[in-house]
């Protein structure tokens, strides 16, 4: 099938604000630019040791359900999705060019295919498919191949949610329970899957809202989030086979006084996790070995959905958010995609999918 192009949209000027950390009080004061976005917010940190200010820029207009950010170092571009608007997106850092196109279904994630700049694997409804898109505004995306279908025997129907490539280029992605009414999901009807080329295997079941994924090769660890757990899981990880085992919880949001639901996640070069908190207006930095909260980075959107590192030196954080009307309208900049600098951490390369 061929996906439908979307109409061109005009970008608004980029707005930003600056966050300054005050180590002596473990509080952070927010200073806005002249074209500031939203209301003043406070960022709290348990270990506020950075001297440089944290700067948060709005790089897109509000999306309905922005998700799945993937930094492609070859193109120096960020790819991400708007699940509910059925669109995939590209943002080029150097030119600040933002483009998108519409699909015939809801995409849970987008990951480039290794060796290709115009081919991607996406989770489309309940299928893993390869699409071709040139990255231009409204340019049709063509489905080249359907690799596998999942959850075909589950009713009512869920959909594929967050997904990423592991260090060997295998796709890990899970599903999210049927949602009705908005914000209410059928519990434990979903699973986490691993796709190796065209062979799919169930990793674990009894999942409600499959979300954040991250790997640490040095510690042989796989980190995973079912948002309804309100916790972060750790598994032993075998990089050669992709198998995981020995699940345990390593961080509890409620026990650490964090409101909201853990969502998308990434890992930095020191092995610390960064976790988006939906309905929490923040990104957490967590030490997964000690199970402690290092800091809480305030984001000017309530529904923070995911996070990844990018840029030429992998020291820029990209944060997606949503503006879904669950408990009331989400005013801008809710739903925007943000670029965050000065967090004092560097990320790792986002891995592409190995089709062959």
Automatic annotation (TrEMBL):
<keyword id="KW-0106">Calcium</keyword>
<keyword id="KW-0479">Metal-binding</keyword>
<comment type="similarity">
    <text>Belongs to the SMP-30/CGR1 family.</text>
</comment>
<feature type="binding site">
    <location>
        <position position="263"/>
    </location>
    <ligand>
        <name>a divalent metal cation</name>
    </ligand>
</feature>
<keyword id="KW-0963">Cytoplasm</keyword>
<protein>
    <recommendedName>
        <fullName>Regucalcin</fullName>
        <ecNumber>3.1.1.17</ecNumber>
    </recommendedName>
</protein>
<feature type="active site" description="Proton donor/acceptor">
    <location>
        <position position="263"/>
    </location>
</feature>
<dbReference type="InterPro" id="IPR013658">
    <property type="entry name" value="SGL"/>
</dbReference>
<keyword id="KW-0378">Hydrolase</keyword>
<feature type="binding site">
    <location>
        <position position="159"/>
    </location>
    <ligand>
        <name>substrate</name>
    </ligand>
</feature>
<dbReference type="InterPro" id="IPR005511">
    <property type="entry name" value="SMP-30"/>
</dbReference>
<keyword id="KW-0862">Zinc</keyword>
<dbReference type="Pfam" id="PF08450">
    <property type="entry name" value="SGL"/>
</dbReference>
<dbReference type="GO" id="GO:0005737">
    <property type="term" value="C:cytoplasm"/>
</dbReference>
<dbReference type="GO" id="GO:0019853">
    <property type="term" value="P:L-ascorbic acid biosynthetic process"/>
</dbReference>
<feature type="binding site">
    <location>
        <position position="67"/>
    </location>
    <ligand>
        <name>a divalent metal cation</name>
    </ligand>
</feature>
<dbReference type="GO" id="GO:0005509">
    <property type="term" value="F:calcium ion binding"/>
</dbReference>
<feature type="domain" description="SMP-30/Gluconolactonase/LRE-like region">
    <location>
        <begin position="65"/>
        <end position="323"/>
    </location>
</feature>
<feature type="binding site">
    <location>
        <position position="211"/>
    </location>
    <ligand>
        <name>a divalent metal cation</name>
    </ligand>
</feature>
<dbReference type="InterPro" id="IPR011042">
    <property type="entry name" value="6-blade_b-propeller_TolB-like"/>
</dbReference>
<feature type="binding site">
    <location>
        <position position="161"/>
    </location>
    <ligand>
        <name>substrate</name>
    </ligand>
</feature>
<feature type="binding site">
    <location>
        <position position="179"/>
    </location>
    <ligand>
        <name>substrate</name>
    </ligand>
</feature>
<dbReference type="GO" id="GO:0004341">
    <property type="term" value="F:gluconolactonase activity"/>
</dbReference>
